[in-house]
Design brief:
- By secondary structure, this protein is of the alpha+beta class.
- The protein has 2 domains: 5-14 and 80-256, 3-Layer(aba) Sandwich (Rossmann fold), CATH 3.40.50; 31-79 and 258-298.
- Helices cover 25% and strands 30% of the residues.
- The chain has helices at residues 9-26, 96-111, 154-162, 189-196, 221-231, 244-256, and strands at residues 5-7, 41-49, 52-53, 62-66, 69-71, 73-78, 83-90, 118-124, 128-136, 171-178, 202-207, 234-236, 259-263, 272-280, 289-292, 295-298.
- A 7-stranded mixed β-sheet has the order 1-9-8-7-10-11-12, sandwiched between helices. Strands 2, 3, 6, 13 and 15 form a 5-stranded antiparallel β-sheet that branches.
- Helix 2 (96-111) packs across helix 6.
- It is globular, with a radius of gyration of 19 Å.
- The model is unreliable at 8-38 (pLDDT under 50).
Length: 299
């Protein structure tokens, strides 16, 4: 097995550059998720009633606005495409209990993935380290190299993970287990939220209260929540889940039952920032909670 790889300041700078390059190149390719609207755009939408995913909806149930202009939804489906999962684990001293519980539940987490899925493990304290690269789902995860370290480069780790983006025909999901406190990052919370709004990955943050530890709300909680919501994901409050496995199971179930709305951009200038708003038409369904990416950029 290859040794864990540490990602430093140079890698962080490359990650920022790679986001810009990816968006620029993909704007020339039709059919990419949030990568240019020359032909088609795809929007992943989670619909829930309370905490239960809502199934059985069709194009007739949704309405979608791109920069304020209503768009015709040409297709809606619940996608079962392969998942590329990045597990991001905080290994700073304040999360020692979380590390042990993650290790004990790693095999169960792996069994929730299908063979067509892939998973990698990235840890962060002062340094951001890839414990192992993407490997096929369902296989045991080698977690012996996970050790406690000092510092917390949470923002840097999230940006590096989000910069990877989605490959064609696959979806990239980032699930971060952390106490939410950042002490050693180069990037600040505002930069993180900016990057999350332009990346092509879905981010879920599971705060450390899920491990049963004492919890103090981090100063950057607003920007962390904004980053998750900009990507179409969510920040999960402490105490919502009993353990990391329960949190992961809920996130993956919700992800796999989300809808994919497709439309061809009409009546809106292609270049620049596009704000996306999705609603349900039926008044009886207005109590449902919708979660989706807030927008995209097109060149």
């Amino acid at each position: 097995m290859n040794p864990p790889r540490s990602c430093g300041f140079v890698t962080l700078a490359v990650a920022f550059a790679s986001i810009s390059i990816t968006v620029s190149i993909a704007a020339q390719q039709p059919g990419q998720i949030f990568r240019g609207a020359a032909y088609g755009v795809e929007v992943n939408v989670s619909v829930r009633s309370g905490r239960t995913p809502v199934t059985g909806l069709s194009t007739a149930d949704f309405e979608l606005f791109d920069n304020g202009v209503r768009q015709e939804i040409t297709a809606v489906s619940v996608e079962q495409v392969p998942i590329d999962l990045t597990l991001l684990l905080d290994t700073s001293p304040s999360t020692a209990d979380a590390i042990n519980k993650f290790k004990s539940g790693a095999m169960e987490i792996a069994t929730l993935l299908r063979q067509q899925d892939q998973v990698r493990l990235v840890t962060f304290a002062t340094d951001v380290i890839e414990i192992f690269p993407f490997r096929r789902g369902g296989e045991p995860m080698p977690v012996d190299a996970v050790t406690q370290q000092g510092g917390t480069s949470l923002h840097d780790a999230l940006i590096l993970s989000l910069a990877r983006g989605s490959l064609q025909g696959r979806r990239h999901l980032v699930v971060a287990f952390t106490d939410g406190h950042d002490t050693t990052s180069v990037a600040d919370g505002e930069t993180l939220a900016f990057v999350a709004g332009r990346a092509d990955s879905l981010l879920h943050l599971v705060l450390s209260g899920a491990y049963g530890t004492d919890y103090t709300q981090p100063p950057s909680v607003k920007s962390l929540r904004q980053a998750a919501e900009e990507s179409g994901g969510e920040m999960h409050a402490p105490g919502r889940f009993n353990n990391a496995l329960g949190a992961f199971r809920q996130v993956v179930e919700d992800f796999r039952q989300s809808y994919v709305l497709r439309y061809t951009l009409q009546g809106v200038k292609r270049e620049g920032r596009h704000a996306v708003v999705v609603k349900l038409k039926n008044p009886d369904k207005q109590n449902y909670t919708l979660r989706h990416r807030k927008g995209y950029f097109a060149g």
